[in-house]
Design the sequence.
């Protein structure tokens, strides 16, 4: 017997069953995001365990990286990672600030869309393209004009001079830093632009009412108000720079050596993994590369999490004020 | 000099500097595109699309690499997008305001900017070691892991843009939440979701690091998913680093192809979302 009432009950039951399935599926997918992170952490620890057991803390403090004698210390790649990222930020932050100010304060409305799209497109260019461009275009320019000038004019100065000595290789820490700067530029700009835009208009208008110039408003009103967000954006850029792999692998020179000069070839954590992993023979060598990966993960996770936390705090504040 | 005058000069200097910074940013994009066009376009010919990657020092094409990239990107998005859609749905609908979704959202945002080489190591341990050799499927999984956070983030943003009243109206007619979501909310957010998927494809199609020790590379044609497969990014890496002129030339062609594909896709994705008034920026 199939009366309309029975058919309806059956239909409702099916609807309710699908509802349960769908709800569980969405929950499971959300949990998978957490599970992936847990999986990454577990794999990295599992993979790096043999190396960490042998070298303990000297893995982080050791300077020697020698596959022949099976001695591995991460100090050189760690140093290279940090130095290139710092160079990247020193170059990218002022540029990003300038671009963000241009986009929010100066740029006529009709030009805003095209300019911000163009800057954001820098973020979609694949990292490998930055690498090949850095190696074949940027490095020769640096080697033939910029670096000789730096060596001649800055290299002889006290203190800072040590950073710019030695032969101009073209590839090395400085070149990698410059390429990284171009790559993080769109990310830092984008965050700065967003947080500048969140500044309450009333605050800015009050400052204009007191006779402030546009620059006064940017420097004394917008920037202090959005400070947390700006720092968050910079740290997000730092997180990107620390973990960037392919572009750096092309232009860093891949030398396990710490030199005072920024012009010298070196290596970074990610470049060392990318270069050596496929060829690593022996369990300890592979495990040491996994340990490098773990180190990079801890470093970037801390930086990015701190950045996200700061941006989240600013966003919540803005919502509350509204 | 009066304060006003000094402030005006400062204003002028600072704003000139900011325009200069913008000019540098635009010039860099121009320089990179110009290099790609000038070095790549001249070498594009039929052989690129009809022949396999050559041995050292001889001419050839990129057919197997293009094929491999397309296959792995498609597989990656086919695995990553549905899961990302469901997870984003949880954040925007069922889990709205719960502590779990706050945690998932935060972790997802962190993964959005996490280094992709770590994903390579993860999938190496997960699949390559278990299977005993490199494979295209491992490459696709690595790409899916990278596409996932992009999809989760855009899905949540886009679903949140759909007015709550539409859900209430559907519920008032007796629809279960799943029916409301799949028949009312998803269609309303369709363009935004499409943008998200396109941005995810753009993101993974140029990824190199996670493929280095998952899909590896293959000099020959292969459509076997359980074997190493050629792909454009790794071929570009290998060829550009080589001393052979023929190889370097092909690397430039490959770089041009990938960049054009990614840029065109990003521009289309952006214009879909601006044309239809939906905006999200998963890059941040």
Sequence:
């Amino acid at each position: 017997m199939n009366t309309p009432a029975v058919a309806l009950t059956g239909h409702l039951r099916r609807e309710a069953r699908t509802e349960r399935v769908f709800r569980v599926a969405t929950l499971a997918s959300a949990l998978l995001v957490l599970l992936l992170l847990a999986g990454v952490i577990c794999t990295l620890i599992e993979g790096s365990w043999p190396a960490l057991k042998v070298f303990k803390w000297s893995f982080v403090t050791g300077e020697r990286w020698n596959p022949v004698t099976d001695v591995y210390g991460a100090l050189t790649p760690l140093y290279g990672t940090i130095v290139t990222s710092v160079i990247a930020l020193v170059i990218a932050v002022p540029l990003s600030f300038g671009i963000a100010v241009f986009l929010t304060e100066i740029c006529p409305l009709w030009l805003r869309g095209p300019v911000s799209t163009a800057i954001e497109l820098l973020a979609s260019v694949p990292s490998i393209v930055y690498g090949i461009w850095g190696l074949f275009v940027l490095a020769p320019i640096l080697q033939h004009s910029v670096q000789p000038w730096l060596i001649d004019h800055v290299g002889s100065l006290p203190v800072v001079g040590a950073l710019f000595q030695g032969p101009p290789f073209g590839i090395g820490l400085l070149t990698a830093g410059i390429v990284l700067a171009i790559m993080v530029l769109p990310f830092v700009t984008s965050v700065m632009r967003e947080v500048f835009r969140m500044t309450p208009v009333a605050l800015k208008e009050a400052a204009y009412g007191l006779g402030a110039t546009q620059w006064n408003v940017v420097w004394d009103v917008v920037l202090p108000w959005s400070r947390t967000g700006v720092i968050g954006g910079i740290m997000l850029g730092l997180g990107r720079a620390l973990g960037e792999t392919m572009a750096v692998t092309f232009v860093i020179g891949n030398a396990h050596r710490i030199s005072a000069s920024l012009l010298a070839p070196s290596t970074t954590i990610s470049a060392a993994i990318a270069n050596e992993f496929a060829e690593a023979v022996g369990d300890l060598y592979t495990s040491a590369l996994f340990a490098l990966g773990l180190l990079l993960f801890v470093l970037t996770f801390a930086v990015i999490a701190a950045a996200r936390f700061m941006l989240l705090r600013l966003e919540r504040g803005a919502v509350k004020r509204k | 000099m009066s304060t006003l005058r000094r402030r005006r000069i400062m204003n002028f200097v600072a704003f000139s500097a900011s325009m200069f910074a913008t000019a540098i940013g635009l010039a860099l994009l121009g320089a990179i595109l110009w290099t790609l066009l000038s070095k790549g376009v001249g070498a594009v010919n039929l052989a690129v699309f009809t022949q396999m990657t050559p041995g050292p020092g001889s001419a050839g094409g990129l057919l197997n690499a293009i094929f491999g990239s397309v296959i792995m990107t498609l597989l990656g998005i086919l695995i990553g997008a549905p899961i990302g859609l469901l997870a984003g749905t949880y954040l925007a609908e069922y889990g709205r305001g719960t502590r779990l979704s706050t945690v998932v959202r935060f972790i997802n945002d962190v993964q959005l900017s996490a280094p992709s080489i770590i994903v390579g190591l993860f999938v190496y341990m997960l699949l390559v070691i278990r299977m005993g050799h490199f494979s295209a499927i491992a490459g696709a999984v690595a790409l899916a892991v990278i596409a996932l956070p992009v999809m989760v983030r855009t899905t949540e943003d886009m679903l949140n843009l759909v007015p709550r009243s539409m859900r209430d109206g559907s519920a008032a007619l007796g629809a279960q939440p799943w029916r409301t979501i799949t028949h009312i909310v998803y269609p309303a957010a369709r363009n935004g979701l499409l943008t998200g998927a396109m941005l995810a494809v753009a993101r993974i199609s140029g990824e190199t690091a996670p493929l280095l020790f998952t899909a590896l590379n293959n000099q020959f044609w292969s459509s076997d998913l359980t074997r190493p497969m050629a792909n454009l990014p790794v071929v570009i890496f290998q060829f550009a680093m080589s001393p052979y002129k023929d190889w370097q030339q092909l690397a430039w062609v490959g770089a041009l192809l990938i960049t054009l594909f990614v840029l065109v896709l990003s521009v289309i994705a952006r214009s879909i979302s601006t044309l239809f008034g939906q905006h999200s920026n998963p890059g941040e």
In short: The mean pLDDT of chain B is 89.
